[in-house]
Amino acid sequence: MYQYDKFDQALVDARVADFRDQVRRRLDGSMTEEQFRPLRLMNGLYLQLHAYMLRVAVPYGTLSSAQMRMLGDIADKYDRGYGHFTTRQNIQYNWIKLEEAPDILADLASVEMHAIQTSGNCIRNTTSDQYAGAAADELVDPRPYAELIRQWSTFHPEFSYLPRKFKMAVIASDTDRAAMRLHDIGIQIVRNAAGELGCAFYVGGGMGRTPMIAPLIREFVPLDQFITYSEACLRVYNRHGRRDNKYKARIKILVHELGKEEYTRQVEEEFAHLLTQNIEPPLAELERIKAQFTDPAYDPSAPDALDRSDPDFALWVDNNCVTHKQPGYIAATISLKPVGGIPGDATSDQIRLMAGLAKEYSFDECRVTHAQNIVLPHVRKVDLYTLWQKLDAAGLGTANLDQIGDIIACPGLDYCSLANARSIPVAQKISERMAAKEQEIGELKLKISGCINACGHHHAGHIGILGVDRKGVENYQLLLGGCEGADTSLGTITGPGFDEDGIVGAVEKATDFYLANKQGSERFLDTYRRLGMAPFKEAIYAKENAE
Amino acid sequence: MKILTGNDLKSGAVTWWDGSGWSLHVEHAVDVGEHGDDIAARENAARRVVAPYVIDGEVGPEGPRPAHIKDRIRALGPTVRLDLSLKPADANAGDWVI
């Protein structure tokens, strides 16, 4: 994985020193909150519902064991013994003291980490496939390209004050595991008819109050021009994106209002101009980065067989592990969604345990997924049972990946000052209510947001839940039919909302209807797409209507 | 009643104006009437609070209580981690929020 060079380290160290001075000036009164606020936000420090919250960047979700261990130590040293892994593949701490924030950044810098550009109207952390480098179906490891984006976008002077925040994702498989088309720019590394690698650009996707699926604006950009093309996309957005209305400021609105054709025309025009300016990073830099993402030293004699005699272990393997490109290895997902637990939360001890297991069993590497879980990407199959036993003993052995208990949930009104309703208690109740039926239901991605900003990706859930404030009372809208991935679709609201208990019952009715009407091996989403909203709606509201 | 709330500048902790200073406990909050904005400006300038704002409150059996659920959660702590709230020993503390 990528290791900082002297420029990376100097840049991050300088930022720590800058922020330390800024905090000192805020505390001694030489800077007002109005002056300080944009500076702290540029370092990922928010003032949230209960305290300061620090969002730490995890570029493309990849962490070394030393970095993961540091995240656990920070949770103990500066917070309250836990952290929250987010849908941007980052981690957040909820109880930070302003006067200690510079020390946290210094600790992060000591393991090549930071919180730069985890807030503000700039290019945020670039996300990627959690199985990058391990997936059997990828063309190449997408992370070197995400890393080049990180370097290009960090402190980019032209894009530090965009109309609104900007999120990019890079994948290299036909199977989209990063919700790529729901990003401002989604890049898929593809191969053209001549066998050359390049990038397909999808621009103008996003969730929030106006969800949109990004259209494909260019099928193939040569790899040695993809930063230039990204620059062109950003330039057109920066020039024409609306700054008068924050709710219409995302690039998806610009692409929608200009139309894909006109936006693309302007990008192509800008791209042609930029090609004459020679702004693409030298190929040698990309090669330097790629050299740090080579395969680990796999054991070519690692046996491919797996002892599945323990049924609990076999279930975990079936649900949480995916095929690895290297025979004898497997990629294992650690679910941070125990029954009744808080989605994405992990204690400091659990974080350190996962760090140790990454070091011992996965070539010193782990990943944060956008579904708020942790992946050990390169595990020898012969080690898998021992690994699972250690996870299970620490409450990390839940076998529910992509099932109804594997809920994505934003922090909601329990932590977030923007939220309108709590997300976590709803997730906990659904998780508990549906646990017994989970295996029977199979794949069902349920996602909960506590407000229209959609940090919980509710638009993309097979079942989505949106919390709203109805005259001071929490109310929950139910959506069906959303999906991320190659067949991305947006969920549709079923009808009137529910209270906290009512939404749990509605989810159960929807899944009961699915189980009664599924054909063959249909997933919930397949049945919904075959039958449409009407019969689901009838089943969900039947009792309420009768009453 | 009108309640003035904000966060402690250094710790970020949620605080409530008690008439002479800032308390961690909403039960100590006083009715600031029409003076909330003036107090907020003065205290903000003195760096004794950050991001102060005035909310509607109501008086219950345990004292002042924010009218809106968001501020009741601010006053207590996350309902899903009562162990981290101001009333860790009270298993039913969440009822106060709802």
State the main characteristics.
heterodimer; A: 547 residues; alpha+beta; Sulfite Reductase Hemoprotein, domain 2; Sulfite Reductase Hemoprotein, domain 1; Alpha-Beta Plaits; B: 98 residues; 5-stranded antiparallel beta sheet; 3 helices; 5 strands; 23% helix
Structural notes for this entry:
The complex is a heterodimer of chains A (547) and B (98). Chain A is an alpha+beta fold and 547 residues long. Helices cover 37% and strands 17% of the residues of chain A. In chain A, a hairpin with a 5-residue loop joins strand 8 (185-191) and strand 9. With 98 residues, chain B is an alpha+beta fold. Chain B has 3 helices and 5 strands; from the N terminus they run βββαββαα. In chain B, 36% of the residues are buried. The interface between A and B is medium-sized, with 29 and 23 residues.
Largest sheet of chain A: 5 strands, antiparallel
Mean pLDDT over the residues of chain A: 97
Question: How far apart lie the N and C ends of chain A?
Answer: 59 Å
Amount of helix of chain B: 10-25%
At the first level of CATH, the class of the largest domain in chain A is Alpha Beta
Going by CATH, the architecture of the largest domain in chain A would be 2-Layer Sandwich
Question: What fraction of the residues of chain A are assigned to beta strands by DSSP?
Answer: 15-25%
Cα radius of gyration of chain B in angstroms:
13 Å
- Extract low-pLDDT stretches of chain A: none
Order of helices and strands of chain B: EEEHEEHH
